[in-house]
Amino acid sequence: MEITQLLFAGFGYMLLLFLFVLETRRNREIVICAAVRLPDGRIFVGHRHQHALATAREVVEWNCGEDPGPHHWRKLREAWFSAQAGAGEDEAFMAQGFITSRNRFVGRVEAYELQQDAGIQSKARDGYRNGRLFSEDLY
Description:
Elements: H1 3-25, E1 31-37, E2 43-46, H2 49-62, H3 70-84, E3 95-100, E4 105-107, H4 108-118
Antiparallel strand pairs: 1-2, 1-3, 3-4
């Protein structure tokens, strides 16, 4: 990763923190970061959804030897790519969403609505897509 990319990412986080403080004072709920929720209710956050998924895998594998085996991760990977392709998410297996300024896990559609209500523009080159929020829209 180049230094300019690191600086830009750092600036993005600072801007998001500023928006968090500003919107909290206005009593508006906004999206803070990407997250994935596993079936057991555990939520993992990250800059992007793939970062949250990687953290989830590491924690589950290192948590007291709780390696669910390759079949579990194959199913997780399939659910991930299915959701990325727009085929819908296997909510019983894994949910991709976001954490809000009120520490709530919300899905892509509700996250999009929160950003719209707060008047926050997408940071993605093409703007918001299909009434759903993607981590690229945040920073």
